[in-house]
Design brief:
single chain, about 230 residues, eight-stranded parallel sheet, binds pyridoxal-5'-phosphate, PLP-binding_barrel, pyridoxal phosphate, Ala_racemase_N, pyridoxal phosphate binding
């Protein structure tokens, strides 16, 4: 018998495939990050058995602890939370992609840690398209200068942007945020050829995000159930 987790996961996968087909996109160009924050490692193991390999966490110590407990698993970890400089030492050694960089000091510290761990860190810049004060991220008109400053960090590779839509039922507001993120990416992608990824779309809005060009979806509750 299929578990609840399995049923939810395949429902999400099917809906992504269906939407991609509908809008003429290649499903293989859309990466699903299963956001496992607050769920225990047992749940991640169960998800792994189903075939999930990419997990997103947004607390640094939680990422450190879980990745250590699951060291023998072939998991691709993504860090999607707010960044504190002194916690980057927990994030950089284990993260394939950091979605949420907003400050040059963060890049400086990441670059330093990358030398220590002998890696190149792929990164997304978080942009605050909606302009909400509670949201982290660069304003769209700050992105150009920021990108030009990043070229000094030889071990940091900026591969795209992450954004979050406002918490609203208004689909057009959500759509506009995603659309503007894509326009921003297109604006800079000839000058910065590594810019390809758009991390946008969560449980409540990922289908709109696919329509607007998301390449990475961050989905938690729709896969794992409501967080306690
Ligand atoms: C929690 C979280 C998600 C997933 O949210 P759901 O609504 O549960 O899908 C995605 N992105 C970020 C940055 C998050 O913190």
């Amino acid at each position: 018998m299929k578990s609840k987790l399995e049923i939810r996961y395949y429902n999400v996968l099917d809906s992504i495939k269906e939407k991609a087909l509908e809008v003429g996109r290649d499903y293989n160009n859309i990466k699903l990050v299963a956001v496992s924050k607050t769920f225990p490692v047992e749940v991640i193991k169960e998800a792994y058995e189903i075939g999930i390999r990419i997990f997103g966490e947004n607390y640094a110590q939680e990422l450190r602890d879980k990745s250590k407990l699951l060291e023998s698993y072939d998991i691709e970890w993504h860090y999607i939370g707010r960044i504190q400089l002194n916690k980057l030492k927990y994030i950089v050694p284990v993260s394939r992609l950091i979605h949420s960089v907003t400050r040059i000091e963060e890049l400086k510290e990441i670059n330093k840690l990358c030398r220590k761990y002998n890696k190149v860190q792929e990164i997304l810049i978080q942009v605050n398209i909606s302009g909400e004060e509670t949201k982290a991220g660069l304003k769209p008109d700050e992105v150009g200068d920021f990108l030009r400053e990043t070229v000094d960090f030889e071990r940091v590779k900026i591969v795209g942007f992450m954004t979050m839509a406002p918490f609203t039922d208004n689909k057009e507001i959500i759509r506009n945020v995603f659309k503007n993120a894509r326009v921003l990416l297109e604006k800079f992608s000839s000058e910065f050829s590594n810019l390809k990824e758009l991390s946008m779309g969560m449980s409540n809005d990922y289908l709109i995000a696919i329509e607007e060009g998301a390449t990475i979806l961050r989905i938690g509750s729709k896969i794992f159930g409501e967080r306690g």
